[in-house]
Amino acid sequence: MTAVLEISGLRKTYRSRKGVRNALDGFDMVVEAGQVHGFLGPNGSGKTTTLRTLLGLIKPNEGRMAVLGKEVPKHLPEVAREVGAIVESPQFFGNFSAEATLSLLADAGGVNRNRVVMVLDLVGLRDRAKERVKTYSLGMKQRLAVASALLKEPKLLILDEPANGLDPGGIREMRTLMRDLSAAGMTVLLSSHILGEIQMICDSVTIISAGRRVTSGSVSEVLARHKSGAVKVRLEAGVDMLGAAQVLRTAGAHVTLETDHFVVGNATNPAQITKLLAERQIYVTELTPIAADLEDVFLELTGTAPVEGQNRQVDQVATAGNGGWGQ
Amino acid sequence: MSLARAETRRLYKRRFTKLVLLGVLLVLGATVAGTWFSNEKVTPAQVADAKAQADRDYQTSLQSAQQDQQKCQAAQGTADAANWPPGCEGLYTPQPEDFNYVWYMPASFEFVEEFPDMISVLAVVLAAAAFLIGASFVGAEWNSGGMMNLLLWRPQRLRVLGTKMFVFLGWLISWTVVLTAVWAGVFRVIAETRGSTEKLTSGAWQSIGLMGLRGLGMVVAAGALGFAMASLGRHTGMALGALIGLGALQIGVYVMAQLAGLKYPEAYLAPLWGFAWLYKEFVVQDYNSCDFSTSSGCEYATFTLTWQVAGIGMAIFALLVVGTSMWTMRRRDIT
Fold first, then answer.
1. Using CA atoms, how far apart are residues A56 and A72, in angstroms rounded to an integer?
2. ipTM value for the complex
3. Which residue, A95, A250, B178, B277, could crosslink B310 as a Cys pair with Cβ 3.0–4.6 Å?
4. Model confidence over B228-261: pLDDT tens digits?
């Protein structure tokens, strides 16, 4: 496959009186042609900084970036015609109508104005096209932003939180649109916090935390690489579940009791569970690995899982991966 | 070209542009109406009456002066002499030119004498409008995020900002030239019907044309400054704030110059530089100096601010601000 977007060693440092902050700390990413690629990361992890840097809005301190095989920002003016993008919240001059806004962009970019009606229809704004943008809801502005990105029929579509403000129907429409665009050969880079959506529509993902890539690959690969390590344990009826849990806890397991079973959260080697319990004449009737979803992987890798009794701060990242038990 | 076309359309579509232009036309219309109604064509009979009245007043004043002379002469050698100048020297003697008959006529619009003031009115009104429109044109784009959108389409920062500015300045020059031509035509008509076009020679037209050109320069500079200041601050309000700040700074500098005993504190006031630019010179006086002469009393030392000095000074300031705005556009991140 051809890489449509390549980033390596990207670094962006902000200096202020409070000190130096690395928004991007040697970040790498590759997006292959024709894929829908999810770009995930907690708030303040560097997602938007990456996209802005890629699009020439921010100057990096170091690193290499290439879009459609051309180095950027040096060759960005040449490839800009092929890249449609929305970055962060949709921003438009409120006193112009959606139609005027897009036709001005079409003029500026040398795109045929006839496409304006087409893309407005595509995002469901055809009947409200002549209304001023300032009368639009956030969801409608989001649709307009997507329309502006689609206006130039890009080869690479970069969407930063496109589902923000959309109603459930809108989110589903957006999902279908992404799939259709991808099927038509467009590469889509999708930054989002809605992990279920990403898991549903993306072929591959990159997860960023504290300005660095923490994992990447196809969604199935990432999920396979980061098994939850948790197993569901069910015992024979009438067996003292609390006692069994205590046995495992004494051995260092993280046990969570449920109504009719318990979960061992850090069971790297499930055989240890059966061994320990069998030694005490307690027999297991079910031992099922619990599959991780993207949310689990995200929380684990970014260290942003909520901890009871603690208010996590935006830049606070817990040490990811506590290590397994039972090895 | 496509970018220039888009920016031209954007400028025309903006409601603020239309509102300010409407305001300009209303102010100029009120000026024209005021001039029309406050002037009238003077008839030969009115001229004759005015001349007769001026002569009568001159004669009355002359008789009064002669009586004063006689009283003064009579008072010499008496205690009353203290109430008169020594030797009756320096007593006022009226001159015929002190009673210009024109002052006795109803107001009449003399094109050659009064149109330069009208050019300055036009230049000041258009300069204010240019500053506002220029600041809003780019400031609203920054503030609304429109500039970022545009840069996603055309990731060439200097070209985008430069095109925007040149489109705006081109539009501004077109409007100023058209309005100045209409302005001259309207006042020519007023002069023909409610005044006079005496002394309107080709030389007079040349002088008026040059003043119009200087006015155009002032309007362009004001527009470029508004645009550049708003772009520097990335908000329309920043340009207006900077203008207020500069005004306050001006007052501060003027007060400090006075306190420091500098000879010509008025020379530090930018509006007077604008005056010198339009009217070719502005003479400031040092009121602390006094070169006394018996004929005309104190003659103060003067400093003449010429249009060349004023023009170069204002151009350097405008170029510095525009250059800085371009430099920051190139250097600063867009967040």
1. 8
2. 0.78
3. B277
4. 999 999 999 999 999 999 999 999 999 999 899 8
The answer to whether residues B267 and B254 touch, using CB atoms and an 8 Å cutoff, is: no
Instruction: Let me know: does A49 contact A42? Beta carbons within 8 Å.
Output: no
Number of neighbours of residue A213 by Cβ within 10 angstroms: 22
d(CA B123, CA B202): 22
Contact A107 B9 (CB under 8 A): yes
End-to-end Cα distance, chain A: 38
DSSP bridge partners of B60 = none
Distance from the A53 Cα atom to the nearest Cα atom in chain B, whole angstroms: 9
The Cα of A40 is separated from the nearest Cα of chain B by a number of Å equal to: 20
Residue A33 has a CB neighbour count (10 Å cut-off) of 15
Please state, rounded to an integer, the average pLDDT across all residues of chain B. Answer: 92
Contacts of residue B297, defined as CB under 8 A and 6 or more positions apart, other chains included, come to none
Q: Which two tokens stand for residue B56?
A: 């009568």
Is the peptide bond preceding residue A73 cis, with omega within 30 degrees of 0?
yes
pTM: 0.82
Per the CB < 8 Å rule, is B10 touching A104? yes
What secondary structure does DSSP assign to A115-137, as a single string? HHHHHHHHTT-GGGTTSBGGGS-
pLDDT tens readout for residues B99-110: 999 889 889 999
Q: Does A113 touch chain B (CB under 8 A)?
A: no
C-beta atoms surrounding A66 within 10 Å: 19
Q: Which amino acid, one-letter code, is at A5? A: L
Quick one: what percent of chain A has pLDDT higher than 90? Answer: 43
**Each residue's pLDDT tens digit, B277-287:** 999 999 998 88
Residue B164 is which amino acid?
K
Beta bridge partners of B282: B305
Return the amino acid letter for A161: E
Of A73, A91, A95, which has the smallest distance from its Cβ to B148's Cβ? A91
| DSSP strands (E only) in B177-250 | 195-196
C-alpha A276/C-alpha A285 separation (Å) is 14
Nearest-Cα distance to chain B for A304, in Å, is 25
Contact A105 B153 (CB under 8 A): yes
Element (H, E) at A156: strand A156-160
| Kind and range of the H or E run holding A174 | helix A168-183
Which SS3 state, helix, strand or coil, does residue B298 take? strand
User: Are residues B246 and B153 in contact, defined by beta-carbon separation less than 8 angstroms?
Assistant: no
Q: What residues of chain B lie within 8 A of the CB of A59, using their CB?
A: 333
pLDDT for residue A312: 67
Return the structure tokens found at A18.
């409070």
| Cβ contact, residue pair A77, B156, below 8 Å | yes
Q: What is the pLDDT of residue A98?
A: 95
- B4: which 2 tokens? 């220039």
In eight-state DSSP terms, residue A73 is T
Which residue type sits at B180?
Answer: T
